[in-house]
Amino acid sequence: MSAPTTATDREADDGPLLDVRGLKTEFRTEGGPIVASNEVSFSLDRGETMGLVGESGAGKSVTARSLMRLIDSPGEITGGQVVFNGEDLLQKTEAEMRDIRGNRIAMIPQDPMSSLNPVMTVGEQITETIRRHQDVSKSEARRLAIESMDDVGIPDAEERIDDYPHEFSGGMRQRVLVAIGFSCEPDLIIADEPTTALDVTTQAKILDLLNEMQEREGTAVLMITHNLGVVAQTCDHVGVMYAGNLVETAELGDLFDRPRHPYTRSLIDSIPEVDTDYDELPTLDGAMPDLGDLPSGCNFAPRCPHATEACRTGGDPSLDAVGDGSSRAACLHADDLDLSESTVPEAGAGRRDIDRTGEPLFEVRNLKKYFNAGEGVFGNVHLSWSGGGLPTVERRHVKAVDDVSFDVYPGETVGLVGESGCGKSTVARTALRLLEPTDGEVYFEGQPLHELGSSEIRSLRREMQMIFQDPQSSLNPRKTVGQIVGRAMEKHGIATGEEKRERVGDLLERVGLSRAAASKYPHEFSGGQQQRVAIAHALAVEPKLIVCDEPVSALDVSVQAQILNLLNEIQDDENISFLFISHNIGVIRHICDRVAVMYLGKIAEFGSIEQVFSPPFHPYTESLLSAVPHANPDRETDRILLEGSVPSPINPPSGCPFQTRCPKKIGDVCEQDLPELEAVDGGDHYISCHLSDEEMSQRESFITPSKRAETSPADSD
Amino acid sequence: MSMYNYVFRRVGFMAVTLFFVTLIAFAVTNILPGDVALLILGPNATDQSLEALQTQLGLNRPLYVQYIDWVVGLLQGNMGESLRFGEPVAQLIAERLPRSMMLAVAATLIAVVLSVPLGVYAAINQNEAPDVSASMFAFVGISMPIFLWGLVFILVFAVWLNLFPTGGYVSPSEDLVGSLTRLVLPAGAMGFALTAYIMRMTRSSMLEVLSEEYINLARAKGMSQRVIVLRHALKNAIIPVITVIAFQFSYAFGGVVVLEEVFFWPGIGRLTLTAIQSRDIPLIQGCILVVALIYMFSNFAADLLYAYFDPRIRYGGDD
């Protein structure tokens, strides 16, 4: 390819690749203009990676889209310069910008599921970019597209180029997006949360791929993310955004060792580390101010533990150099504050003890749920012609849940963790009889749920509540919060009239809302508050078990911790049991007593948090745990990257379901025999694997309660 | 391979549906008040002659025997004989169906050609003057019943402007130009009335697609507005519109009943009307069956088109 010559030509230019000066983007609204990106200035050198972090709504994406001039009405770039390769992009015509987009500056979007056009083959979507910007023939573009698919690690690129996006897994689709981004060898890639929508093992692979592509092509990357773990792993320097302003920029090491802005400190502290115990998860209290109604002083002052009178009245501080390092911060007290120490208190009490001597509250035995493959009455009927003759009819099933057993004791939280498609949500729905089980037994307080009729089930529903991922779609938008919560009480004859109103008020206070919230409608609340309403609704009928299906996945990181703390607190007070479903092993770590790791409809490992997070490990658990990004740039992580993707449950592998991807596969035994879920170290820790205990114990525990104490004294580097 | 499965499944469903249609068609015509024999022989007929005719027509046999007899006949391609015309029902329908088909196809074509570009144009100029005027144009179309548009079109284009004949039908094989000039007004009137639904659907479908992430990415790849609208958006947006078009086509077939009266168009609509007026039971049953078949096949065609436009359906759709 002709890349090397052009690249050197461009490198001959002086100055940084990208120099953003005072960029200002506003949105016109009925209540006046809102400044989503306020006088943002930073620069980026060739080949460098810069992270842009902050909570949602901080203005990260708007800033990034402004660089490409992709701001839609009613938004408008109202000031500043975006100097790219020595030219101000804001002075270019739209036609000139189109020649730059996808060519010199490319974007890798967030969601691989919705960012590819479903009716175009991936080949068409890659080649159209190439042909738009390079003067090559159709066949040459196709060759280049196959090459770029090869480069991003899509197997059998030549055969797969004519496939449609839906025929690829999420991780593979993200690779296609990376291929599109790099297809014209751009100088700058803007990656907008490129791994947020992915499972943790896939996320690690995509980050590695991005690093590798960047090194190979010498591309600069602007990485937009809310995940400081991702930043710590990939970036050279970092910009922190808050309420439309860039409040701190620093080199990666400086930012983590010695943050200069209190917001940066809070952000770092709000990330729970997988290997640390907390009495209460660290939270970032309060919320970002409404961009249409900013405080008169520093925007962060209302949430800042160090705020003084000067901060509240003195206007918005400007971004100035601090100390002798690389840091710049927009804080009046940046020079005086020492923010190098974490403010999170160390764990004291340790984990609570659960009494598991009596009857379990909830017990699932050999549960199976098979779905018909395909939709409709004849959906699973499959005609196949094999070697001529008459077609044969077969019925195919998706074994979503295949022989799963576990129990939950009073006051206990049991987690179900696994990547998307492992069947964890189906387990919950089937166990509660929201879906009819194919086979197996479910007991609630000794009553066989699987044998009960629908009316008996309905009266038991009072004892078993559910909280869903998306509160917005699970709360009736036409009812007030008071009606939603009160209705549940009336339905189960718990309280009516004045007593009901009183109890609704108490409950709302219990979940951290005001009594006045009862008269509001769900849309008037933020996502976190809506989830609080959903929790109040579940608590209204005084259940003994609450099934939480990814209850915090749709929430901002800072809000996640608040909701998790609330759930923990409620459990301590009311002795409720939780069945907690999550793909996020970090969340599971901090809220569950015991956890079942699921893979392809089966349980791979089951035990207490200490057991599962310590050796011996099931190889799948080990790779899951190793892939969690740490918000600490000094930490070396020895990550295990899994080959390939989760096999289709219609046609699962023979033997052990994990054998196709297992890094520790022994050989034939794994392909032929399904390993039993057997107790290891003689107790209540179960692993389904043919390996010996020693072979599963080669890695250290992921739990080291005193970790923080060891690492925090100013790491010299 | 899944495509065969899909077609196989759909044909199975259609057979079941058709069975129910025959049941309903048979039931409805037999519940209708009025004795066929009486209708044929007139009010002065004697009881004996009535009974003789009923025996001859097989009307005094049990209903289920009559039904089975009728269905067996249908399976052999025999739809019975029209009481009023004394000709085989199949022949009567075969003669008129192509004329109605011509009208409905032309009307749907006119509607699609008008409404899809209008819908796209309205969507990319959302809430601006072109959007509002396109919507208003379309709403005028559905604001009045089809036959009224027929009359307006006759008044304006035939009587005042004298551009087209007021009505009648000429076979295209005899006189192509004459046939087409007579087609313009009825097809135009009906097409105009159908435009609104398809245009509204195209517009809202386009708006939805234009806010998708992949449209954003296409812009970030440097694609021009034309490529984004035509290549990326329209092919996605058209998918739900296809159902509406198929539905409108079947609706056009219902609509022809009145419109054919207005334009003296001797199609299946007028045949149905005549059949009902004269209690011509075999003919009514035949007309119901044929219209139901057309309805089913147009929807089937829409589903196949769906599969053509949406690769996710082509492979069985589990994702």
From TrEMBL, chain A:
The answer to whether the entry has keyword Transmembrane is no
Query: Which membrane topology term applies here?
Result: Peripheral membrane protein
Name a single GO cellular component: plasma membrane
InterPro entries linked to this entry: AAA+_ATPase, ABC_Ni/Peptide_Import, ABC_transporter-like_ATP-bd, ABC_transporter-like_CS, Oligopep_ABC_C, P-loop_NTPase
Q: What is its EC number?
A: 7.2.2.11
Q: Which GO terms describe its molecular function?
A: ABC-type nickel transporter activity; ATP binding; ATP hydrolysis activity
Which region ranges are annotated with the description Disordered?
695-717
Tree of life domain: Archaea
Origin species? Haloferax denitrificans ATCC 35960
Q: In the record, which residues are listed under signal peptide?
A: none
Subcellular location as annotated: Cell membrane
User: Enzyme class, one word?
Assistant: translocase
Q: Which CDD domains match?
A: ABC_NikE_OppD_transporters
Q: List GO BP terms, alphabetically.
A: peptide transport
Name of this protein: Nickel import system ATP-binding protein NikD
Cite the Gene3D superfamilies for this sequence: P-loop containing nucleotide triphosphate hydrolases
| ABC transporter domain location | 20-268, 362-625
Instruction: Describe its assembly.
Output: The complex is composed of two ATP-binding proteins (NikD and NikE), two transmembrane proteins (NikB and NikC) and a solute-binding protein (NikA).
Question: What is catalysed by this protein?
Answer: Ni(2+)(out) + ATP + H2O = Ni(2+)(in) + ADP + phosphate + H(+)
UniProtKB/TrEMBL annotation, chain B:
Pfam families (alphabetical): BPD_transp_1, BPD_transp_1_N
Q: Where in the cell is it found?
A: Cell membrane
Position of the signal peptide: none
Q: Which residues form a coiled coil?
A: none
Source species, domain of life: Archaea
Task: Cite the entry's keywords alphabetically.
Answer: Cell membrane, Membrane, Transmembrane, Transmembrane helix, Transport
Membrane-spanning intervals of the chain: 12-32, 101-124, 136-160, 180-199, 237-259, 283-309
Q: Which residues form the ABC transmembrane type-1 domain?
A: 97-306
List, alphabetically, the GO terms of the cellular component aspect. Answer: plasma membrane
An example of a Gene Ontology BP annotation on this entry?
transmembrane transport
Coarse class of the primary localization is membrane
The yes or no answer to whether the keyword Transport is present is yes
The family database entries (InterPro entries) matched by this protein are listed as: BPD_transp_1_N, MetI-like, MetI-like_sf
- Membrane association type: Multi-pass membrane protein
By sequence similarity, the record places it as follows: Belongs to the binding-protein-dependent transport system permease family.
Q: PANTHER family, from UniProt? A: DIPEPTIDE TRANSPORT SYSTEM PERMEASE PROTEIN DPPB-RELATED
Record-given protein name: Peptide ABC transporter permease
Q: Which organism is it from?
A: Haloferax denitrificans ATCC 35960
